[in-house]
Amino acid sequence: MSFSLLVVSISWSLQRLLLYVLLQAVKTQNQLFFLRFSGGKLRLQLWLKQMLYFLHLLSCKMTRSSVRLITAHFDLVYSFVCLLFSRFMATNDLMTELQKDSIKLDDDSERKVVRMILKLLEDKNGEVQNLAVKCLGPLVSKVKEYQVETIVDTLCTNMLSDKEQLRDISSIGLKTVIGELPPASSGSALAASVCKKITGRLTSAIAKQEDVSVQLEALDIMADMLCRYGGLLVNFHPSILSCLLPQLTSPRLAVRKRTIMALGHLVMSCGNLVFIDLIEHLLAELGRNDNMSTTRTYIQCTAAISRQAGHRIGEYLEKIIPLVVKFCNVDDDELREYCIQAFESFVRRCPKEVYPHVPTVISICLRYLTYDPNYNFDDEDEDDNAMDAEQNDEDYQGSDDEYSDDDDMSWKVRRAAAKCLDAVVSTRHEMLPEFYRTVSPALVCRFKEREENVKADVFHAYLSLLKQTRPAQSWLADPDAMEQGDTPLTMLQSQVPMIVKALHKQLKEKSVKTRQCCFNMLTELVNVLPGALTQHIPVLIPGIIFSLNDKSSSSNLKIDALACLHVIMVTHPAHAFHAHVPALVPPVVSCVGDPFYKITSEALLVTQQLVKVIRPLDSQSEASDSFDPSPYINDLFTCTIKRLKAADIDQEVKERAISCMGQIICNLGDHLPAELPGTLLIFLERLKNEITRLTTVKALTLIAGSPLKIDLRPVLPDAVPILASFLRKNQRALKLCTLAALDILLRNYSSAVTPVMVDAVLAELPPLISESDMHVSQMALSFLSTLAVTHPSSLGQLSGGNILQQLIALVRSPLLQGGALSAMLDFYQALVATDTPGLGYMDLLRMLTGPVYSQSAALPHKQAYCSIAKCVAALTRACPTEGPAVVGQFIQDVKNSRSTDSIRLLALLSLGEVGHHVDLSGQPELKTVILDAFSSSSEEVKSAASYALGSIAVGNLPEYLPFVLQEITSSKRQYLLLHSLKEIISSASVSGLKPYVESVWSLLLKHCECQEEGTRNVVAECLGKLTLIDPETLLPRLKGYLLSGDPYNVTYNQMGRCWGSSGRGQVSDCCPTALQVEMGPFKHTVDDGLDLRKAAFECMYTLLDSCLDRLDIFTFLNHVEDGLKDHYDIKMLTFLMLARLSSLCPSAVLQRLDRLVEPLRATCTTKVKANSVKQEFEKQDELKRSAMRAVVALLTIPEAEKSPLMSEFQSQISSNQELAAIFDSIQRDSSSANMESMDTS
């Protein structure tokens, strides 16, 4: 710091003399100097000594006489330096103190500090001025409001000074002060006061100042202030607008540009009248079109307004777009560029309003995408000749009057057209078929673009098209769906040859950027259409190899080329590459040896895939069998083993080398008998290393699962105990991978796994079988199931051991479900099949059901009964001879009047689970017993009986389904019987149910108008599930009922969950409205349509999950807006929808933000009457919290805070203590949830 201070403060000649004298004093320890230094005039501190070395760099050799000359004037030199250092260091110390939170200033100190800092802003030394400006930031938050106003007044005055340096430093100071003011949302009076004080001075400076530099600074500060605090200056907006508009015709382009920036920030917060004035002014000027230069400015201004406040300008597009279209035809390249940029902003920011004009925009963009008036592209067949001609003419020098490429501005028009097409493609998903008919061929033709930046934008536009085409859901990529006609995927498939032909020429371009774009294109293409390049591999491989071998290629290009090659190999059949393996192996091996670790890492990934290509173990094709991999094995092994052995390499390379070598041994191990033992020993070493052990476990799992039966016996005695020790490590991923490795080792190397090894693993298992981590428990259970098959003798120690206790505890856990439950059932079936003493069928049955029958304690959760029942059924299926007796016992338990509800519950559930898989029609009393259970006093027993009847019916539909349908018709217990029917529809096979669909459908329709809401809901679920069995026939019927106004709308919510894409546009508008009924002196509201509206809104919420891309989002938002003003239950749903929509489609929500804020504000500010019941207060509190969650979600949308209504609502929330507390709490919860999701990922 001090060095730079000296450099700028003294003349060069004096500086050289002074620096050399000081340096000589230190070097020679001259007594004269050190006497003067130690006498109190200049103390050489450590920072000064360090500075002296840098001073020496500027000094030059001097004679001793020169030194004496300077020594004679030492007092003068010293005084100058001391004065300079004292100001600088004092200011630096002040800045340090002001940055401390602990500093407190009284009124007098504040006044002195402010006065001195403002004085230092006028210091002649630039370094002191810079430090003074830095002090302003922390000072603003430390002094009182009137002192801040003093600072602002002084800075505004100085900004109009004649001294350029003072003007500049004052401008920086004003920006610093504005940046340090509290945010507008805090409700601080300081920010409003300061901004209002500055605004008048700035508008005056902008309107009246003749000095352009002052105007530019004032415009810059005005833009900054409007961006941060525009909402606080609403009263000043008309005057700001009136001073800004004339500047759009300024002769200086810089003034116009900064004016446009300021206007862009103004429209984000201005009122409607100011906005209308601005738009009408622009429309009038564009219609007048007096001057082409100002017309360009007005078009730029319109585009800037659209970018900043697209949700406001949308309603004026009908007037604006025809004018912009007209100007596109004017012969002015710069104007065309600005017009197309305006189209781009309209497309991105006003998607609904611009929709009718999209075909026009596409047409204009396609026309100007090829606009290159100064260049003639020859036919494709003559390209090579044209290139030769260009090379021959390189030496030709034309006259000075001839056209130069430097004057060619047409490339900017083409670039704007490409970017605008990118915007159209990115925002109009529903027009994909049209894009593939018109836009796609045009973009592909322009891959030959001669201007590199334009070419990059063309590639980017096509990448956006591919990303839009990528199927959002797996069913969209179904081959059967692709056969239905001209879908985007089929159209893309037909254009692949044309794309490859265009890319083939670009892959050998000199431009690195172009080749990178090609690789990105190919990568995205095969992600969208896996296997699409199978026929074109011979054309593409040479281009990839060219980039890998090219010495001029950058590291990033090689990485992109390798990544592209990897993705292509993963998504295409191995035989497509066999002809190219000789050409591919050398460059890939070379990249594995590259000194840059990222290239090496990517190359190892490619090598791993290349191994699968040359020896695909999972392929049965004759082409794979006929390919001989042996010539390439040595090269691949050698380059990988070198990286595997190296200890001083990047962690990523180590892991990739281990994975790659694992793949080599897995696929080619039978060709490496000599190298295998040594390599396995290296794996053993890596297994002992904490950093590489996880990757090594995965590699060993891969090798152990190889169909080549690689001999791992030499390392198993050492490896298995190490793997067993990993099970106690506090690393979840390591536990899961280790259990998978042990499982595969048991399956494929059971003879080499000794009982001692098994015991070492079993000792570590009990803590892993727990409800705290169901996935780990599932893997542990799978290991035990394999152990029961391969080493049944080892299970003897389970009887009475910790593992069995943990298993029984897990069965009773309410969390047991899904994969863990399936693994548990598989284990019990494997265990009972071993006939281990003490672990037979009846022994296990007693362990499972004992607590229920002993009545020692009721199980804590109904799910425990369900899990036990499933385990009983699994045991019964494994031992069919025991089945009849056990089923008979369960029937007796249900009949027995002395049985507790717990026993009946377990017996019924067990009967249902057994009957699901075993035909129980041979039990004559079963139907009667279950129907009698429908009359139980226990709701849980009734529910279990309903489930049991449905599940048993699945085991024999012809016997039980007609019986259930008959009972529904004749019995009064429809609710329970309908639940049985729902279980049948959910669990039975489609082929088994098909003959009964019509009779079930007719029966369900009869119960749609049942008076009980619960029954109607079950009928709705049944209808929805039944529709999925025969959608071609039943879905049109269901839609007809929905649109007819019949009471079936609730059904459609169930349909939306499973068949959501068909639900577009089916939310009905014809819901009945609420009526007021007079009952004596009171008025009572009867809302007959509430249930119907609730069902419709539930369906809407479901559609957000299943088919967002099929919805008209603006129509959807209309319904959401209505829901925000509806009943309590509907409001709660719409608040949830609003939060979801804020993240799913923020631009559409931003356009409707002003209309959404008002109902949210109304909900948050509504007060419950003082004499209301407690429930009303609780409901209103919950509504407030839900509304506030929606507000927090809306504020995550970029630029939402810039809405005047939202900004005002935020200030209202901040000023209300109750609302502010709720808002802060929800924000904290939201941020902590985000952090947790990041940790999980």
UniProtKB/TrEMBL annotation:
Name of the gene this protein is made from: CAND2
Protein name, per record: Cullin-associated and neddylation-dissociated 1
Keyword DNA repair: no
Entry annotated with the keyword Cell membrane: no
Record localization: Nucleus
UniProt family annotation: Belongs to the CAND family.
Keywords, in A-Z order: Acetylation, Nucleus, Repeat, Ubl conjugation pathway
Region (Disordered): 379-407
